[in-house]
Design brief:
By secondary structure, this protein is an all-alpha fold. Helices cover 47% and strands 3% of the residues. The chain has a two-stranded parallel sheet with strand order 1-2. Helix 2 runs antiparallel to helix 3 and helix 4 runs antiparallel to helix 5.
Amino acid sequence: MRHHRLDPYPIPKDKEPLYVNEPWLIDRSLYYQEEANLEPDKAADNIRIYVPLDLNADAILRKLRAVINRYGIANENNEMSFGADVDMIISQIEIYDRVWYLRNNPVEGNHSKEGIELVKKFVEILERIPDACAECFPFDTIERLRAEYL
């Protein structure tokens, strides 16, 4: 049995936590529900917890590599699940990019330079996924990222 460290308050390094009320960032079963509910589950035994999630370029790329290692090649049998896992990481990129954009307030463009650099590396890794006759993933994901960020 694993013992968990339960803290009664957030303890971020900079003492300014950023709360993102999007449970689907860590719960894949919620990710593709048509109607996202931000309210805690109404079940009588429900306990809503907030788990710290560090978003930095290395952590995001590490998560992508872990997903690729889990699936290996992209094929018709796994491309839907493979793509869903990668899309969850892309949601984290969007938050990372938005925070950097707001911190630096660039004069031009809709994305931070940090977000753009991260997406470049992310796309390079996606392009190296072995293709075993997948129809959509990772191709559509790469094109979507290029159109939005690059």
